[in-house]
Structure formats: structure tokens, C-alpha cells
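Final report, closing paragraph on structural work. Over the funding period we assembled a curated collection of sequence-structure pairs, and we close with a single example.
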Amino acid sequence: MELISPSDKFESAFSEFYDDFQVNDHENAEFYIAGKQDFAAYVQSLLDEANGVNLREGYVPCNHYWLVNDNKSILGAIRVRHNIDNEFLALEAGHIGYDVAPSFRQQGNGRTMLKLALPKAKALGIHSALITANEDNLASRRVIESNGGRFDKIVHGKVFPYPIARYWVDCI
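Its predicted structure, as stored:
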């Protein structure tokens, strides 16, 4: 398995990734619908975001990666934000966010994906990354903890109106 930057070469794999969310986790499918509607534009927007180009208000530069297996299927997506220099990121979202495709959950893919992303965060100058999870998302919390996450506290977000568990993870 490896983390790759978004690429036009993975349109078919991305379509399967999106369809998996659409069928099995409809609530989170909306985050990926732009890739289904216009894949080339979606990939370009992700690459632009990594370079700080055409950022939406409140956004910071952010590298996007896809976890792919030997079959070149996309198992998950992970985002590494270059900084958390606004209230929302500093309190609720953190440096790193990720999603594992529903069909590939509970197989260690989240743990692997985060492990592979930590050196990428370090290369961006992040020494300790803030990573958050819904308080009741025990699977995500285990992913963070298995990568050395040190529990900070539970906060109640303004954008996400539910309890959020905050962790700090050393980037190695």
C-alpha cells in the first residue's frame, strides 16, 4: 500500500471509491461528489489546494493523498493541512483528516494511512499534528491512538455541534 497524490490516472478507481460511499455511507459521499461530476477539475482543485491556489475562504493549503493497494483501488483519502491558523482548524478539524472507504474499514487501513501521512506532515514542518475525531467514533480514535496519539481533551465545536476528541501526534 502507498499514499499517492491525486492523479487523472485514477478516475475509475475514484469512481468506485465514491460509489462505495454513496451506497454505504451516503452522509460522507457529499465530500467526494465533485470528483464524480468532473474528475479532471476535481483533481486540479486538490492539487491547487496543496499549492495554496484558489483557496476558499477559511481554507489553508492542504495536501490530499489517496491510499491505494496493489490493485490500484483507492482505500481511503487523507488530508494534511499545512497549518491550523484559524479558529475552526485549531479547535475542531486539526492538521489531518481522513476517510476510509466503507468497504475497506476495520481492516487496519486507517492506521496504515495515518502512519504513512505523518512523515508527509513532518516534511511540511509540522512536528506535532492535531488530529480530531467525533467523541463516539471509537474506530477513528483507535486509529489515532495506534499512531501515538496523546489525548488532549473533548471540545464542543461551533461548526461540528457535537463532542470532538482532540489528540496530538508526533510527526515522525
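The two ends are 18 Å apart (CA to CA). The helical segments are 11-24, 26-29, 33-37, 39-50, 87-93, 109-123, 138-146. We thank the funder for supporting this effort.
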